[in-house]
Amino acid sequence: MLSFEVRAQPSVAMSFASPLLALALTVAIAALLFRLLGRDPVSGLGVFFVEPFATRYSIAEVALKATPLILCALGLAVCYRANVWNIGAEGQFLLGAICAGGVALWVTTAGIEAPRGVLVPVVLLAGIAGGMAWAAITALLRDWCNANEILVSLMLVYVAQQLLNYLVFGPWKDPLGFNFPQTKTFVAATLLPNLLPQSRLHIGLVLALALVAIFWAFLFRFWGGYQLQIGGLAPAAARYAGFSARAALWGAMLISGGMAGLAGAMEAVGPLRQLTPYVSTGYGFTAIIVCFVGRLHPFGIVFSGVLLSMFLIGGELGQSRLGLPNALTGVFQGLLLFLLLACDTLIDYRPRWRRLVSARDEPATPAQLPAGGAP
Amino acid sequence: MNEVALLIAATIASGTPLALAGLGLLLNEKAGVVNLGAEGMMLVAAIAGFAAAYHGGSQWIGFSAGALAGVAMAAVFGWLVIWLNTNQYATGLALSLFGTGLSAFVGIGYVGKKLAERSTFEVPGLVHLPFLGDAVFRQHPLAYFAMALALGIAWFLYRSPAGLILRSVGEAPESAHALGIEVRGIRLAAVLAGGALCGLAGAFLSLVYAPLWVEGLVSGRGWIALALTTFATWRPARVLAGAYLFGGVTMLQFQLQSEGVQIASQLLTMLPYLATVAVLALISRNPAWIRINMPGALGKPFHPGA
Fold first, then answer.
1. How far apart are CA B157 and CA B169, in angstroms?
2. Eight-state DSSP code of residue A32
3. What is the C-alpha separation between B210 and B250, in angstroms, rounded?
4. d(CA A4, CA A88)
5. Cα of A195 to nearest chain B Cα, Å
6. Mean pLDDT for chain A?
């Protein structure tokens, strides 16, 4: 019978191997699923794992979609390390897009003349402020009323989406837009400069990578980041050391809200150039998976951000090339997180194969481990 | 028909899925397990129920399929959190994300499909009562089931020996284990029961309440049901009352719209979510009140002595 025994120390090797194992299992299940759908598994997997890197344009698209995922996940990593369960990054992302888009729209309609070097930072800061403000509602209710941050932040996602709908169907609708729910296209001076000609990739990627380094330094080299993490790992020890739990809550929520807001702002004045009800394709939720697959570590998040971005691109390609439903991406995403959590068990536990009857008398020997004994 | 009676009837109908799911989650949490996957379980059950009823031709086949789908999802969750001791929040979240994706994927072929003509339900005799007949006695049988269930669960938890064991597992699993109670088995049973009820709630949405399938049909009701358990301070009767309260808020937006109130529909759609946040904040304000009522080991993993 397969049993798990506690390791003396968490396995470092396994904490690296677990995401890879989870990915391998996801790929195996994906191949099986393609088979069941009557598609060739090789070409199906090729669409998800090879074609996103086939052309310069598609590589740029992978980087483009990885940018908001990395930004949101960086903020969430700080939250989860501080044991603050913000799962409403999607809502904070939308508020960032709304605030940044609002400023860009105002600049557009009022015909304000200013250089791009002034307007773009203002627009992005508006987005950060919007995301922070939305996250602050959750922090405030947690701080003052002890309201569960998981439920509040999640409820606010629905509120944010309705707010966006209200604006683009109502006051912000382009009067010349044939009644489509969308704003005017923003003027060029508010848009993010392009990074790669003939692609939609913008300088947000550079900013995101710079923030990866900053977050790494903050988490592992600065006192504030250390305090946050101790608060998450050992609340009693943090209290004893005099670290403020309130400061950790507010710090984590505002940082992650700001990052999600920045991501939303970049989406609005980056590839979209206007606001529509479909500003986010679930970036805030996908970022939760990115965060866990990346081991809550800024460098890991870069890799998992690219991986989950590949899933998104693969889903789109699968739809256009193979006629597969785009919703397949969501299945793979959820599956990956599930399998990751299951594989993470191997970090703290060692699987052992024991005979059921005489388990107590005869300790298992490694020779009794069957091939593929790990779950 | 009387307008107020109709509003009451609609409130009961929209409160029923919340009550079913909320009561299921209550059982989970009384055993010490938080399942954030409610939204995902309800979505998968909604499409499973819809598909089964569409092909099977009977609503009851649909409800069975929905409940089974809920149980299957809950079983995966239960195995992960109870035996592998994975983080309950993260695992529940994974269940919700997976369920959202899976239901969207499976449901593509069912968007816009119609079920066979919906039959009407009425309680014989009582339906002819003035006012009450229209308000209360024209509901789907599951609406009465939800009411009976609240009473049944209250009796089970506080009056039956099995209920005492369930609560002990949620309050102090180590002590329960020392008494020879199979903590993990009981937790799994509670999780599966919760999955079945969330499944029924999901199937109710796609078979009776909507009755159709669209992507994201559940639209946050799983999360509202989770909030309900806190709101109800883990009391079954209060879960039922809370479900009707939120059902009423949902109906209120339609009522306001039909009365021509000059508020954009999108802002009215926010109402149930804002109400959930407001109620959660108000009820959580008194930490002692929550601490007394919350199961002692809620969300904490249990390792049987190594």
1. 12
2. H
3. 14
4. 35
5. 33
6. 89
pLDDT tens string B67-84? 999 999 999 999 999 988
With bands split at pLDDT 50, 70 and 90, how would you rate the model's confidence at A254?
A: very high
Nearest CA distance, A6 vs chain B (angstrom) = 9
Q: Report whether pLDDT(A179) > 90.
A: no
Per-residue pLDDT tens digits for A300-328: 999 999 999 999 999 988 888 888 888 88
- Residue A317: both structure tokens together: 């390609």
Q: Are B100 and A359 spatial neighbours (Cβ–Cβ below 8 Å)?
A: no
Q: What gap in Å lies between CA A88 and CA A137, rounded to an integer? A: 11
Q: Where are the alpha helices (DSSP H) in chain A?
A: 12-36, 41-49, 56-81, 89-110, 116-145, 149-169, 204-221, 223-233, 235-240, 245-267, 283-293, 298-322, 328-348
Domain region containing B14: 3-111+122-293
How far apart are the CA of A115 and the nearest CA of chain B, in angstroms? 36
Which residues from A are below 8 Å from B85, CB to CB?
345
In whole angstroms, what is the distance from residue B94 CA to residue A288 CA?
Answer: 9
Domain-located, residue B302:
no
What pLDDT does residue A1 have? Answer: 67
Residue B298 domain flag: no
Residue A357's pLDDT is: 56
pLDDT of residue B305: 65
- Where along chain A do its domains lie? 66-300
**Which bin fits A178, alpha (ψ -120 to 50), beta or left (φ > 0)?**
left
**A214, two tokens:** 């900053």
**Any idea what the CATH number is for the domain that residue B44 is in?**
1.10.3470.10
**Residue B260 domain-assigned (yes or no):** yes
Residue B1 pLDDT grade (very low, low, confident, very high; cuts 50, 70, 90): low
Q: What is d(CA A85, CA B91) in angstroms, rounded to the nearest whole number?
A: 13
Q: Classify residue B233 as left (phi > 0), alpha (psi -120 to 50) or beta.
A: left
Residue A163 clears pLDDT 90, i.e. is over it: yes
**B window 4-63, beta carbon within 8 A of A:** 36, 40
CB contact under 8 A, B276 and A166: no
Q: How far apart are CA A303 and CA A309, in angstroms?
A: 10
Q: Give pTM, 2 decimals.
A: 0.91
In a domain, B116, yes or no: no
Interface subset of A 26-65, CB within 8 angstroms of B: none
Contact A330 B284 (CB under 8 A): no
Chain CA centroid to CA A236, Å: 30
Query: Per the structure, how many domains does chain B have?
Result: 1
Chain B window 52-111: which residues touch A at a Cβ cutoff of 8 Å? 76, 80, 84-87, 89-91, 93-95, 97-102, 104-105, 108
